Amino acid sequence: MGNAEFVAGDWGTSNLRLFLCDSQGVALDSRTGPGAADCSGRFADVLESLVAPWRASHAALPVVLCGMVGSNIGWTEAPYAACPALPEQIADACVALCGGTVHIVPGLSCRNRFNAPDFLRGEETQILGALNLMESLRQGRRLLCLPGTHTKWVVLQDGAVREFFTAPTGELFALLRDHSVLLRQQARAESPMDSDAFAQGLARFDEFPQGQLLHRLFECRSRQLSGEFTVQSATAYLSGLLVASDVHGALATLAGSLTSRSVYVIGASELTQRYGAALGRHGYGAYAVDGAAAALAGLAQVHRRVSGQVVAHAS
Hints:
The chain is α/β, with parallel strands linked by helices. It folds into 2 domains: 6-130 and 294-306, 2-keto-3-deoxy-galactonokinase, substrate binding domain (Nucleotidyltransferase, domain 5), CATH 3.30.420.300; 169-290, 2-Layer Sandwich (Nucleotidyltransferase, domain 5). The chain has helices at 43-57, 87-92, 123-133, 169-179, 195-207, 219-225, 231-254, 269-280, 291-306; strands spanning 6-11, 15-21, 27-34, 63-66, 81-82, 95-97, 102-104, 108-111, 117-120, 141-146, 151-157, 160-167, 262-267, 285-290. A 6-stranded mixed sheet has the order 3-2-1-4-7-6, sandwiched between helices. It has a 5-stranded mixed sheet with strand order 12-11-10-13-14, with helices on both faces. A 3-stranded mixed sheet has the order 5-8-9, with no helix packed on it. A hairpin with a 2-residue loop joins strand 11 (151-157) and strand 12 (160-167).
């Protein structure tokens, strides 16, 4: 194994993913470990145990970490960087540990369009990576969507993170699926999504866009009682309603002054496809960016900045 230069890590609440990377951020090897919630008081030991085999072959291996490792349940609290924030400002706000051999990326904070405080942690690294991977994001006013448990809608202005807001779309879906009477029995979370029922949820929401989401959710139960849906179809229909509502609200709030009718959707393939379908119904193109690749590219960019190297953008 050669050309290793640093270790990149995404240390979330439940899981740790470490990557041994070359100078371009290409992963040469990987390891997994416990999440931040299970590492109180022993973050340094957990990290060292996982990177020790790599350091046996590559003695000087700086580490760049993002995610909940920098939160109030993490190794140390990396203060949120305030928006608007340029990529280099985010990197410069890293917290250094272990004599400067470990850097933790800060999250971001803003006052959102609803005059409320908003925060993100971990997604800032994916945003940095997307900026490095896609040159078009660095000019004009662009809209990003990072779907997930807490979906983030982010506005970029000439490469700076200007503002964002959060929609707990995935969390609400899981709560209603697993703990509400809208579904007659708990749907199996691992079952494949019924794509037709999901598309129907998107379409039915758009038939009455003026309607509040609360006025539509009971359909997930009533359409089972009428015999239209199985529980699995109702689950996919619920996902369609939630995603449609999320996209409709975000576009109505943020899309007025965009440079183009395009949204960059950063995340796992299944989620980017679902959000892409909803965006397409509004006439917006969706550029899918792999979330894992963006995170790795972002950590590589931070490494170059904190190590004093020139930050080179990919074309």
